[in-house]
Amino acid sequence: MTSSIRLTHHRLEDGTRDLLGKEITERVTAAELEPDADEAILARIGAQALSRYLAGEILHGIHMFSVTARHALLLQNLPTQRFPATPVNGFGTETELAVINALHFGLVQLLGITPFAVNYENDGRLIRNVIPNPAASGTASSWGADSEFFWHTDNPHLPFGDAGANPRLYVPRYLTFYAVRNEERVPTELAAMEDAVGRLDELTQRRLQSPSYEVSPPASNDAGAAGACPLSDTALLEQSSEGLRVRYDRGTTRARTAEAGAALQTWSDTLATMPSKELCLEPGDFMIFDNYRVLHRRKAFRPMPPQNARWLRRCYAS
Ligand SMILES: [Fe+2]
Questions:
Q1: Which residues form the TauD/TfdA-like domain (predicted)?
Q2: Calpha distance 168→172 (Å, rounded)
Q3: How confident is the model over 136-165, as pLDDT tens digits?
Q4: Which of 30, 203, 245, 307 has the fewest CB atoms within 10 Å of its CB?
């Protein structure tokens, strides 16, 4: 079974990586830059340098990603920098990471999308450190490790949004990642929604498109905060002008009728057998995927000692 994931994949030449790293390093060292206060400046520095050094074919792939409805993009061999120990308690000193923050926000800018944070999650900060936090042990969270994350989409308890809307009010359209370290070699798995829907009978598809479900916020949201309330009378599959969109998190989705419950069970069983693509991110890799059309998961893993534990940097963008 081959996955229908349409992935744009490019790898920078070592020479390009080095020139890009040198230019960005020079530009960010003159002053302290922090992601939440200085996002626009970091994006400007990163986007300028990327536009200057990336090959035309790669820049074209980045520019076209969202308009050509690709599922995901992987850009490898970007500059790295000297990295501190993995901040396994959640947050570290962001000003030490200005080079990779400039790259991350620069790429988001070139992709033509807007990074955003919400105040009821991740302390309201733009960059989420995806790390094995000992305090999240046993939970299905981006700070967990020992529990498997079943197939899901992020923040499915929000309505879907369209281009031009305030992104904070809606399901994040895209998840973007920069990989700092992944010595455990834990893959991020992506699956195209089409591969699941195509395996469903018509009745199940219809039931999943009926407003018969309640979807609660994931555990990473601050309980009780405005914006982190359950979404009632919602469908799991919604038709839009661009095609079907999916919201799903097994742990937080409840069916309101027996028929909806049967469809939910069929959906969950189908996800367990659909084809997917495993991306094992390495230091210097950037990945983006469409959270409206891609389901993702991560299997349980045993983290390295905190100094070298798996560390991805995630930012929502719409
Ligand atoms: Fe997730």
A1: 110-316
A2: 8
A3: 877 777 787 877 779 999 999 999 998 889
A4: 30
- Whether 106 is in a domain gets the answer yes
* Distance linking the first and last C-alpha atoms of the chain: 31
Give distance in angstroms: CA of 37 to centre of ligand 1. Answer: 25
Evaluate whether residue 167 is within a structural domain: yes
In this prediction the pTM is 0.96
> Where in the chain does DSSP place strands (E)?
7-11, 72-76, 115-116, 128-130, 149-152, 174-181, 188-192, 213-215, 231-234, 237-240, 243-246, 253-255, 277-279, 286-290, 294-298, 311-317
Distance in Å, CA 18 to ligand 1 centroid: 32
Distance in Å, CA 93 to ligand 1 centroid:
24
Q: Which amino acid is at 300?
A: A
Residue 308, domain CATH: 3.60.130.10
Q: How many domains does the chain have?
A: 1
Q: Which domain holds residue 310?
A: 7-198+280-317
> How far away, in angstroms, is 112 Cα from ligand 1 center?
22
Note the pLDDT tens digit of each residue in 183-238. Answer: 999 999 999 999 999 999 999 999 999 999 999 998 888 877 777 899 999 999 99
Cα of 151 vs centre of ligand 1, distance in Å, is: 9
Instruction: Give 38-78 pLDDT, tens digit per residue.
Output: 999 999 999 999 999 999 999 999 999 999 999 999 999 99
Query: Residue 50 Cα, ligand 1 centroid: separation in angstroms?
Result: 27
The answer to whether position 208 is within a domain reads no
Ligand 1 center from residue 19 Cα (angstroms):
33
